[in-house]
Amino acid sequence: MHTLRFVTGNEGKVEEAREYLEGLATVEQVGYDYTEIQHDDLAAIARRGARESYDAIAAEDQEIDGVLVDDTGLFVDALDGFPGPYSAYVEGTVGVERVWELASAEENRRAHFRTVLAYADENGVEIFEGSVAGTLVEPRGEGGFGYDPIFAYNGQTLAEMTAAEKNAISHRGRALAAFADWYAERTEETADD
Question: Which stretch is the leader sequence (predicted)?
Answer without folding.
Answer: none
